[in-house]
Amino acid sequence: MPQLSFAARIKDIAAFDGVRDNQLIGYGLVVGLNGSGDSDQTKFPVQSLVGALERLGITVNRGDITVKNVAAVMVTAELPPFSKQGNHLDVLVSSVGDAKSLAGGTLLMAPMKGGDGQIYAVAQGAVLTNSFSYGGQAASAIKNHPTAGTVPGGALIEREIPNVLAGKSVLKLNLHQADFTTASRVAAAINERFKSEIATLTDPGSVNILVPDAYRGSMISFLAQLERLEVNPDVVARVVMNERTGTIVMGENVRISTVAVSHGNLTVVVKEAPLVSQPAPFSKTGTTTTVPRTELKVAEEKVNVSLLKEGANLGDVVRALNTLGVTPRDLLGIMQAIKAAGALNAELSVM
Domain residues for 70? Predict the structure, then answer.
């Protein structure tokens, strides 16, 4: 049985095959803007407005419409698995024209389609941007991002995703991070819990689970027990460094071989300050002479050599490097040098 002192639930490190979010997208109009909508140069918002009015029984001429209170937007959302008809979703509204702001606008009914082209939800409601945009010819003021906003609970689900688990006798559990050790521990935990060899492995990224006969009619109960099982996941030893921010993150399993580290800075300052010698006023002889003068300062930090013994763990590495008084940016160069010396037993990833 894997050690459970720092264990994670199976539901946090894996997901069942087919149980996933689905992306929805739609096109719509935001109306009620205070003169901050799309300009006449953007043709398709007016065309969309004419089409919407015609569907409402109002016939208008395209050339007679000049509005600035309408903006064309793309509407996106995430449809969670097992969502039911009538549930609400939060949607993101983003301008696709040259509108200056969507603040105060209302999204008209916008069908939202999935990747299969079917309509799964319809979005409508007031757009919240938490921003403003005001200005004139000489000055302007903008807070946050006024051309994108949200409609909380603005999408109503009209079509449900089929239940991919119903009637199945074999389930596939996909790990978020493929790993041989983690997959083996998951299978062992499942087999021990149900006292049978129902979990088998074919690759490090998934676990095949045979649904016991006793749970064929109660799949939800079986899955609820399975996802609560705790497993200690194994991770690859990796050091991640962000050179722009100086951030360094080292995994728990990072180990190093015996290596000595010395780090210091040598500062040389050369300053030219020439002296000018010239004759006294109204003198009949003498010439002006420039005498060069150079000021030279050399400063070298006094550092100690730190010895990192073989098999040192993350805490030993940090403590040893802290004795050198290094900064995070200095640590970037040190870790790269240790890796180049072949003493770092971990992956080194530089962002």
Answer: 22-157
Average pLDDT value for residue range 161-171 = 85
Segment holding 284, helix H or strand E: none
- Please count the structural domains in the chain: 3
Query: Are residue 28 and residue 153 in the same domain, yes or no?
Result: yes
The torsion angles phi and psi of 33, rounded to 5 degrees, stand at -80, 150
Q: Is residue 117 part of a domain?
A: yes
Q: Which of 157, 173, 189 is the last residue of a domain?
A: 157
Q: Three-state SS for 53?
A: helix
What helix, strand, coil percent values describe the chain, rounded to 5?
Answer: 20, 35, 45
Give the type of residue at 330. D
Q: What is the mean pLDDT of the chain?
A: 82
- Which residue's structure tokens are 């007016």? 46
Burial class (CB in 10 A: 0-12, 13-18, 19+), 342: exposed
> Does 287 reside within a domain?
yes
Count of beta carbons in the 10 Å neighbourhood of residue 1: 10
Among 94, 125, 157, residue at a domain's last position: 157
224-254: per-residue pLDDT in tens? Answer: 999 999 999 888 888 888 877 777 787 777 8
Encoded tokens for 129: 């941007």
Q: Using the 8-state DSSP alphabet, how is residue 63 labeled? A: G
Least confident of 87-96, 136-145, 297-306: 297-306
